[in-house]
Each structure stands twice: as structure tokens, then as C-alpha cells.
Amino acid sequence: MPRNFPEAWQSRVRELLSTTHVADFLDGIPELDAQIMVDPVTDQNTIHIPLETFTPDVLINNTTYPIEVQDHDDGTKTVNLDKYQTKATRISEDQALGASYDKIDSASRGHVKAINRDKYKKAIHALAPAAHSTSTPVIALAPNYTAEDVYKKIVALKGAFDKMEVPAEGRRLNLAPDHANALLTSEKYSAALYADKQSGKISGILAGFKVYGYVGGPYFTTAGTKVAFKAVPGATDKVASVAFYEDNVGKKTGILKQYYDAPTTTNQANLLNYRHYFIVLPIKQEAIGAIYESA
To answer: What global pTM score does this model have?
Structure first.
């Protein structure tokens, strides 16, 4: 057994978590520049996010000097990163020998897929508003809709973002599978959705939104309220399309911790599992929206 077995596996799994089974709706969104504080007892990962709420007054054609001074009074937001843990996996001595990438990838694939599946589902759920407000518009889409109906609601969402003066550059929309499929029945919208035909992924622009097709979006009730994360959706609850503004997204990857039990004379296998910290959330409750199916 190589002495560096635990270190080699942890390093490879850390790499796989950021490169495989990832959700493209977060592509290009940078990590928050915030120091991670790790609790020495619980390992809880915490960060402080600066809130850019301060906007200085702008003087036009000023003739009065000295210019008045304004104090900078931005606040901060304390955030605990979400913790994702896998159950232990038994790795035989034969599987572990050499610790080659092929063997590590094969044995750890289930851990990586499970963690990334849950963390990206939690991410898109967090970016969806809980309910309608002037700063978090939730647009109703009547049942039995057509491609044109879906597009009109996307335009309505664009209008709501316009009223909030959300910058046009950086608006994103993750389409619910049913909404995407409705749009794909129209040649006009299908061409817009599959701008990158080689990848086969939804990757285009509609009504000024960069569109994505991640299928793990949040459920909404027919009354327009978001179903709690991991709650069992009701018979009439449907997955919603979620819109957000890139600069209002906070994303941070915390520590990856590997738990490892070496083989013994009676249990000749390695046991290992992982704990991973990660968070995505809107920095402020604004410039986020959704399109849901009403009754």
C-alpha cells in the first residue's frame, strides 16, 4: 500500500469536484474573495461577504469646492457554507494499489456525482425567489402553454428586470425542462437555444438572457411559492425556470475533508468518505426571478 494513498485520493477527488458533473448555469461566475474561517471543533466553514450597498452621489457640472465628503458605510453578511457528506465506501486492497487516476476515478465517481448533484440542486434552489415581490418577480405561466406563451413570459421577466434597472449584461435564465421542450417545438426558438450546436447543450440568448438547461431546478406550487429544498413536491407542483443577475451571485467553495480507515487484519479493505463545503446564494434579495406554471 503506498504511503500517500489518502493524500493522492483526496487531491484527485478535489480536482474532480470542480471539473466533472458540474452545472453550466454557474460557468464563469467567480468565487467570492472572502477568507474561509473553519471552526476548530465542528469544521463549520464561514465567510463574511461585503455588501456593496454604498453608492456615492454624482455631481454634474459642479462648480463648488471643496467637494462634499460622504462616509463609506457598506455592511457585511455572515454566511455558513453548506456541508455535504457521503456515506463510507469500502475500497479493496486491489482497487487501491498504485492509486492510479483510473482507479481513483472509478472508486470515487459515486461520491463526486452525489455531492455535485446535491450542491448544484441546492444552488439553483437558492437563486430562485421564495415568492413574488417587486425585487424578486415570479411570473405565472398558464397550463397547456405553447412555445410562444413561454417566450412571452420570458419577455415579461425581462421587463421586470428592466424596471429594477438590472444591467442588461449578465442576466441568466435556467430553463425548466418543460419550458425548454416547449420552446424546442418552434424552429425560431430552437435555433436560439442551440446556438452551440456541437455541444448539444442549451446555450443561447433569449430576450437578453443567457439561457441554460440544467434539469435540477426548484419546484413551485401553482400559487407561485417555492417548495422547500428536498421537500417532496405535490402532484401539481412543477419545476420553474430561474433567472438571476451574475453580479448578485455569491459562490464559495470550502474545504474538502476525506475520512479514511486503513485496512486491518480482519477487515482487509480501506474505508473512506468525504465532507465538502460549498455555497451559492443571492447576495441581496433582488435581481432574481422565476417563471412557474399556475393552475
So the answer is: 0.85
